[in-house]
Structure formats: C-alpha cells, structure tokens
Amino acid sequence: MTSPRPKNLTLPDSPHMNAPDQRGRLFAPSAARNMAPIVTLVSEYAPQSGKALEIASGTGEHCAALARALPHIHWQPTEPEEVRRASIDGHGNDLANMASAIPLDATAVGWSKQHSGQKLILLVNLLHLIPAPAAQTIITEAAQALNTGGHFIFYGPFLRDGQPTSEGDARFHASLRAQDPTIGYKNVEDVERWIDESGLSLISRVDMPANNLAFVAKR
Fold it and tell me: Which residue ranges of the chain lie beneath pLDDT 50?
C-alpha cells in the first residue's frame, strides 16, 4: 500500500512525528490547534447515524475526538502508514464507535468501490501535500463512496485567486514547492471546479482559523 503523502517532506509537525508514547500514539501540534473548530464544523453536518470515513487519519487525534463528540456515528479511520495506524488505534482503543485503522491510498482510482455507503467523509490537511491530479482523484472517489445526501468535508490551506493570504502561508507554500514542484497549495477555483465535475454540490466554504478553509460538499 503506497502513501498519498510524498516521502521525506519536511513539515511543521515533522519533529513530533517520530516518538510514539507507550500506547503507540503520536501527537501533532497542528491537530491540537485545529481540533475544536473541525469538531464543531463536522458536528453541524454529521448524520444522525451511519458510517463515516476519515481519509488519511494521520495521528488519529481528529478521529478519536470526533468519535467522542458524535457517538452515534461509526467512524472508520484510514491511513497507509503502519506507524500512524498504530497511533490511530492507540488514540481510539477505548471507543466502541471507532474501528481499527485500515490502509487506504485515497489517491488511487477505484477505492470507492470497497468503501461505498458512507454518510460522511472527512479529509484534513492533505491536498496541499499531493499533486493536483491526485487531489482531484480523491474528490471524485469520495463522491462515489457517499450515499445520496452524504457530505464530504475537507480542510486545509488554499490559494485565493492564485495567491496565499499571509506571509506564513507564502513561506509554507514555497517550501513545499521547493521540496516537490508538483505539490503545494491548491487554488480555490480549481477545487470548486473539481467538486462540480465529481457530481457533488458545494454547499458551504467556511473560513477557518489560521487562514485555512473547509469545503462542505453534498451528494
């Protein structure tokens, strides 16, 4: 199973991702910072019951927080990297509505066939770390994995009118491009076009803390 994230990227959370605790858990500072607003947003659009899939669950901190906040939903975290799957399971091993993490490369065409019937799909902080065609594939496959009426929510940093919105974003975007010229922040206009082409309807674009955006699309 390959990873959707390019290998050997230097990211702000990199120094914190190599020292799991005794339960195998990793902790990402960025996850702690954006946890509350993401839980609030997802709670607004969450179904009353049913299946939810998180793509690229990373450390598992978001999925565990959401499973606690929304106990009526059965959460399936996914993550290609074994050490991160161990971290996810460490964060969620006391939660009856959070399954063990499974491997999934969501940039691969066809994964929706094995993961259909979702009422909610969540993706946090990945699109800027992968090439544009891979980002488009994720959106297309997520649309096909959703039930009618289901929501796809994804969050991260984006360009507006082709430009970053802060000096910090400009530096991070440039750092990503220097490490791999195929990756970096995606244009909002491109993302909205990909949503439309996937057959989803964009129902909200939400300003989030630290100049991030969340897109909420519905099938």
Answer: 1
Residue type, 212: N
Instruction: Give the integer Cα–Cα distance in Å for 200 and 219.
Output: 5
Residue 9 within a domain: no
Domain that holds residue 134: 14-218
Give domain status of residue 50, yes or no: yes
* Per-residue pLDDT tens digits for 19-31: 789 899 999 988 9
Per-residue CA distances from 102 to 18, 30, 159, 169, 186 (Å): 20, 23, 31, 32, 27
Q: Does some domain include residue 177?
A: yes
As beta bridge partners, residue 50 has 73
Q: What is the 3-state secondary structure (H, E, C) of 137-181?
A: HHHHHHHHHEEEEEEEEEEECEEECCECCCHHHHHHHHHHHHHCC
3-state secondary structure at position 67? helix
Enter the pTM of the model: 0.94
Whole-number Å distance between alpha carbons of 81 and 168: 28
Inside any domain, residue 157? yes
How many domains does the structure of the chain reveal? 1
